[in-house]
Amino acid sequence: MKRSLWFLIVTGLLVLSLVACGTEDTSDTGNSEEGAEASEDAKRVAVVLTDQIGVNPFFQQIADGAEQAAEETGLEVNVIESSDPTETKQNLEVAVADGYDFILTATFDAVDPLTEVAQANPDRDFAIIDAIVDLPNVKSTEFREYEASYLLGTAAGLSTETNTVGIIPAEDIALLDKYIVGFQEGVAAVNEDAEVLVNYVGSFEDPAKAKEIALQQHSNGADFIAAAAAVSDLGVFEAAEEAGFYTSGQDIDRTVENPDHVVLSQLKNTDVVAYDFVKEYGEGVFTTGVQSFGLAEDGVGLTFVTADSEAPLHDFIGQDTIDQVIEIKDQIISGEVEVKNPLEQ
Q1: 288: exposed, middle or buried (C-beta count within 10 Å: 0-12, 13-18, 19+)?
Q2: Which residues are 248's β-sheet partners?
Q3: Which residue in 119, 250, 265, 281 has the most C-beta neighbors within 10 A?
Q4: pLDDT tens-place string over residues 237-296
């Protein structure tokens, strides 16, 4: 009797154990399938760049902003780099063929490729940063660079000791007037005695020529020279270190690279725009059309004025100048000071 009772107890425990194990395994399998299904249902974003991130830090900002927004909104994001701008159309077409729901690109090099691809795929959502494509399925970005250029000009006009400053743009094209005219107007607003020298490199990628021009401007009395020529800016930076004048960078904070000579940087916050666009898409509130980003939207700015820098503020600029430029920045945002778009004058 005791043996029979013991046998029944042991058998019952084994059955319960098997049932419990079976239930646990089934539960785990179900969770795994739900996770896989959720992953498959996640919308996918492709960031198609016209160049490689290592070549242009401007693109790193875009990738960072898009990835942060995707993480926050549960999107999948893939960054596709082009070895040169001619590959952009092919990479956009690949993103469409691979089924990406939202495709983001940037710069004027992408305008023609995106126009063709977006027209051929009217049911797909696209966006472009730092350029405009006027199509119903494309969201475009307009930066008010002239507002930041104006601030840079006021800082230069207040800081110059020779009353001569310069700016070196890449090419004599209308697009760069947003940098040149804003800078000139900023200088004039705070220092009517200052002269602004303007000389063009003739290329976005000729540091040697830019260096030659910078040295010439310095020999003509310029103690501050704004670099506005993309890769060619490297030549201006090199000249500043050799000749002992001061300069500024563009788009990203270049003061950290040589704080003794690159004393300011005009900022274009492409990470903010990429973040906003991807987040809007992830939250289901994405709309097309043209969106403008200036000082008020944190789309443009100036180091030490709208954004901190890891580099120390140079004495050539000084905190008194920064305080005055901050006040001017606030006046631009409030509308008390109007900085007009030179392309519309």
Answers
A1: middle
A2: 226, 264
A3: 265
A4: 999 999 999 999 999 999 999 999 999 999 999 999 999 999 999 999 999 999 999 999
- Give the C-alpha distances (Å, rounded to integers) separating 87 from 91, 141, 337: 6, 22, 43
Structure-block tokens of residue 223:
């103690």
CATH 3.40.50.2300 location in the chain: 42-143, 145-268+300-344
Decide if 43 contacts 75 (C-beta within 8 A): yes
Buried b / exposed e along 71-93 (16+ C-beta atoms within 10 A): eebebebebbbbeebebbbebbb
Residue 312 DSSP code: P
Per the CB < 8 A criterion, the answer to whether 203 and 224 are in contact is: no
Which pLDDT score, from 0 to 100, does residue 7 have?
A: 34
CATH superfamily placement of domain 145-268+300-344: Response regulator (3.40.50.2300)
Residue holding tokens 């606030």? 330
Q: What is the widest separation between alpha-carbon atoms in the chain?
A: 115
CATH class of 42-143: alpha beta
Q: What is the pLDDT of residue 40?
A: 55
> pTM to 2 decimals?
0.84
What residue ranges of the chain have pLDDT lower than 70? Answer: 1-40
Contact 176, 345 (CB under 8 A): no
Per-residue model confidence (pLDDT) at position 57 = 78
